Amino acid sequence: MAASPTPLVQALLAAAEAVVAGAGELNRLDGYAGDGDLGITMAQAAQAMKRVLKDTGDTGPSQQLSACGAAVAREAPSTSGTLVATGLLRAAKALPIDPSDGVAILLLCFTAAMEGIQARGKASVGDRTLVDGLDAVCSNLARSAQEGLGTQQALHSAAGAAASAAEASASMEPKVGRASWMAERAAGHPDAGCAMLAIAMKAAAEAVGGGEGPTGPAQAQ
Fold first, then answer.
1. How far is CA 131 from the centre of its chain?
2. Contact 87, 117 (CB under 8 A)
């Protein structure tokens, strides 16, 4: 009998499923400030992750994240796909050999992912990109670690922070990439990258911790 998926694999699979399901909404949001194809690209990335995770059951978390990153880089070689792949690969490298404190590990991985995406995408906090969502998640996880929260509670809280960051991005001025060329058109709509993170985080938190979880901007108008 096959072994049950680890919490990491459960979280990654749930996030991938949610991104596929939310592809249409991500395309819509991306259409205000980009090419309108983020959902298509991220659905391809998510499907690649789902396929590779089926073959990583006997490997450790670092290898699983690394395999996901390599698959996304190979099968969704766009700007957004490259950034997501970079985040996954950086998170994989940040994992210690023997992770013990779940919240500290989450913070370590998300911080490494954010730093990698910042370096690759040349975006800063406040530029209205995925980085703003990741910064909110990292700040929230740091507070959860200080407060001694458990992993499940911390993950739900971080998902809420991602949702809030996506909603807040609707009032931010885009400063990098194509979105900066059409700032007026993007105004009032959540950044698609932040929305994607919120969708993925909500699904991951529910898969690992159960419960309703925080609501995200997936249905934002």
1. 10
2. yes
CA 27/CA 92 separation, integer angstroms: 28
How far lies 124's CA from each of 53, 59, 99, 120, 160, in Å? 31, 34, 29, 11, 21
**CB neighbours of residue 197 within 10 Å:** 29
In which band, very low, low, confident or very high, does the pLDDT at 98 lie, cut at 50, 70 and 90? Answer: low
* pLDDT 10s digits, 124-142: 999 999 999 999 999 999 9
Give the CATH number of the domain where residue 203 resides.
Answer: 1.25.40.340
Beta-carbon contacts of 138 under 8 Å, excluding residues fewer than 6 positions away, are 107, 110, 111, 114
pTM of the entire predicted model:
0.89
Question: What is d(CA 46, CA 39) in angstroms, rounded to the nearest whole number?
Answer: 10
Q: Is-contact 13 50, C-beta < 8 A?
A: yes
Tell me how far apart the alpha carbons of residues 13 and 46 are, in angstroms, rounded to a whole number. Answer: 8
Nearest Cα residue to 95 out of 172, 6, 189: 6
Distances (CA, A) of 198 to 4, 208, 219: 26, 15, 11
Residue 156 lies in a domain: yes
Does residue 216 lie within any of the structural domains?
no
1 domain residue, yes or no: no
The b-or-e profile of 171-190 (16+ CB within 10 A means b, else e) is ebebeebebeeeeeebeebb
